[in-house]
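Posted in: Protein Modeling Q&A

I'm a second-year student putting together a small comparison for a lab meeting, and my supervisor asked me to include a predicted structure for Aspartate carbamoyltransferase. I've never done this before, so apologies if this is the wrong subforum. The sequence is pasted below exactly as I got it from our records. If anyone can share the structure token output, I'd also love a short note on what stands out.
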Amino acid sequence: MHDFKGRDIISIEDFDREDLMYVMKTAELMETNDYSDLLKGMIIATLFFEPSTRTRFSFETAALKLGAQVITTSSAQFSSLYKGETLFDTAAVIGGYADVLVMRHPEKGSAHALAAGTDKPVINGGDGPGEHPSQTLLDLYTIMTEKGTLDSLHIGFVGDLKNGRTVHSLVTALKFFNPTLYFIAPKALAIPEEYKKMLDDAAITYHVTESLDEYLDKIDVLYVTRIQKERFSDPAEYEKLKHVYVIDRNTLSQAKPDISIMHPLPRVGEIKEEIDDTKNAVYFRQAWNGVPVRMALLALVTGKFVLKDERTLHRLVKKNVLVSIGTDEDKKTLLPEIQHMHQLGYNIYATDKTSKFLAASGVPNTRLHKISDKASKPNIKDFLAEKRLDMIINIPTGKGGAEDTDGALMRKMAIGQQIPLFTELQVVRFLMQALD
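Accepted answer (user: helix_wrangler)
Welcome! Here is the predicted structure, written out as tokens:
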């Protein structure tokens, strides 16, 4: 799962939860240790065909801090793309010069086109309104270092949620950490329906509003984005919306005292400078975090770094457990064990009757629909296919019928996906002792 050598970093959708945490731990080590000779003798090509300050400089700084050399182009007009060369051909040539290619380009899907032309790792530094995976990783790293966890946080997004690639990628990654999300935007810039559907399928709670004030007292992290002038075809529409939300000290007075204000930068008036010296402003630290995170990516895709102590990784990852218990007697018998798992911080998912029983017993859980109920979301089949479950406790009724048929399908898929499966009461009890 964690074999990053030679891997393209193009979409955050290519990461599962443990991949994300693997990068987080690697970045932490990059920040706290000296790896100045790790990429000695290697060359990193930075191909930036769209304006960039933080992404380009932090990738180049990361490469230099690891001992690599950097070759670069900063505009399409200074490359053969200006003459009509395809990205495929560009990659075929530059791949012969460099060990890793990092690219920013204004067209969605351009990173895939570049990767098709070379067997060298390609890292997407932003493809127009598409994705920006390394920004997502540094955003996650910032949240983790500021809040001490990525799990079960209340995270708000405000600004241009329609065009914001940083928002789209971060929302996609956060689905693995059971957040509650708040989307704050005018209707013209609302979060696209495809992301709401993704969250519905993943059983993630979210709220959509045009009011900045409505949920401020609940939000742990407020991710502010600028209204992107370059994405508007009508200048008048941009002028109407550009300062629709402004974060100032009055905003902070209505928020949780420890709210963290993030921004991918640059800002253009949506966060007042009076916020900069408050404990809540983390956006400059967020930008600085780009260096250790991008060091981690370069170290991993070149195969020069492997995280040896995976026990540390597993301590960082909160597990998702699906519980499906057949008889009422077995539900009552295992209730103390399930309560204990919840107290240990596990995210509990359950099938219909088990979910109702656990909720009535005071155990928070998320209901998943059975595999046979194909049209209903969130569905066990999707969670298994995406490897979003780390453990399954399934105690069959032993009486046959539809429930056991569904259980058999679930057990078969779990085995195929190599997800730990427990089907006996006594084994589950032993498991609880092992977790302690």
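A couple of things worth pointing out for your meeting: The first strand starts at residue 43 and ends at 48. The mean pLDDT is 87.
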